[in-house]
Write a structure and sequence with these properties.
- Helix 1 packs across helix 9 (207-221), helix 2 (33-47) runs antiparallel to helix 5 and helix 4 (92-101) packs parallel to helix 8.
- The strands form two sheets. A five-stranded parallel β-sheet has the order 2-6-1-7-8, sandwiched between helices. Strands 3-4-5 form a three-stranded antiparallel β-sheet.
- The mean pLDDT is 92.
- The chain is of the alpha/beta class.
- The chain has one domain (4-221): P-loop containing nucleotide triphosphate hydrolases (Rossmann fold, 3-Layer(aba) Sandwich), CATH 3.40.50.
- 51% of the residues lie in helices and 16% in strands.
């Protein structure tokens, strides 16, 4: 019998990095659902389609193919029509596009079955905005991973600077606050902590401590 662990939380909380590390330590498959929305957002951007509900987005969904695969190292690879776009979807622009595209019901429906199917046949740690509330409401373990907006912005800033990108902390903080508002106020599957989710706040702890926190929560409840 497979075990599903749902980890939700706001943008920049480190869900992807922490969930990926926890999955590796526990021998689970890591599924980054945010990457799926970023990929659809990239497809919309390339096609010149505005990320709003309507025939243009519905038509786009009929034409594209989004896949999650894993390389020889066991790392997640996201494919858009067969192209590896894993690195292309990690920009601030892609993040904002994902926030807009994820509010569209047809996009959420398009990706829902893909996410659920992977959880049916594998031991998974799946992270996103609505995993514990909508995608996997019956997940064995639910965690809401968060941190103060300022802490999340600083981490994202450091990450992008390390990659050689010319960014400003103030701009990233503004993006984080804007995305928090958009994600928590959208009509379809808004970001919120599931009633039965464990709150994990990493504002005052480093990455290694955050990973340990999540691993311990999972072990205690498995």
């Amino acid at each position: 019998m497979s075990i599903a662990i749902a980890i939700d939380g706001p943008a920049g909380a480190g869900k992807s990095t922490i969930s990926k590390a926890a999955a590796k330590r526990l021998g689970f498959i890591y599924i980054d659902t945010g990457a799926l929305y970023r990929t659809v957002g990239l497809a919309a951007s390339r096609a010149g389609v505005e990320p709003v509900e309507g025939k243009a987005v519905d038509s786009l969904l009929e034409k594209i193919k989004v896949e999650l695969t894993f390389n020889e190292k066991g790392e997640q690879v996201v494919l858009l029509d067969g192209e590896d776009v894993s690195s292309l979807i990690r920009t601030p622009e892609a993040s904002m596009m994902a926030s807009k595209i994820s509010a569209i019901p047809s996009v959420r429906a398009y990706l829902l079955d893909l996410q659920r199917d992977m959880a049916k046949t594998n031991n998974v740690i799946m992270d996103g905005r609505d995993i514990g509330t909508v995608v996997l409401p019956n997940a064995e373990i639910k965690i809401f991973l968060t941190a103060a907006p300022e802490a999340r912005a600083k981490r994202r800033y450091d990450e992008l600077v390390e990659k050689g990108m010319d960014v400003k902390y103030e701009d990233i903080l503004s993006d984080v606050i804007t995305r928090d508002y958009n994600d928590s106020h959208r009509e379809i599957a808004p970001l919120k902590q599931a009633d039965d989710a464990v709150l994990a706040d990493t504002t005052e702890i480093n990455l290694e401590q955050s990973i340990e926190l999540i691993v311990n929560i999972i072990k205690e409840r498995s």
